[in-house]
Design goal:
DNA-binding; 4 strands; 104 residues
Length: 104
Amino acid sequence: MMNKDSFRDRVYKLVTRIPKGKVSTYGDIAKALGNVRLSRAVGVALKLNPKPIEVPCHRVVKSNGELGGYSYGGLDMKKRLLKAEGIEISGNKIKNFEKVRYKF
DNA sequence: GCCATGGCTAGTA
DNA sequence: GCCATGGCTAGTA
């Protein structure tokens, strides 16, 4: 009997689908899970991400294009990872946000 | 069960 | 204001 994935597992699964060079938002993931109101819980789930390598949570940012948080190495690390993937950032915001925003 | 804690968000003021 | 988590407390048995 296959037990259902927990909320966190479903979050991780979605995040895994975001391709390199693209970003998504906490809210978009929440919507993909059924309700935008889950967005805050999505943030919490990502903070608890046990595998930051496999689950690229650095590709998840705020709905207004700001970076949001990052528990592994802090914001500088998040910024560096994104830049290394070709995402342009100015200050604390993603440039061409809509253009690099991945749609599920 | 209750309560605090967040990597948040849409919609007022 | 929302809602999944995690830690902790009554208050039963």
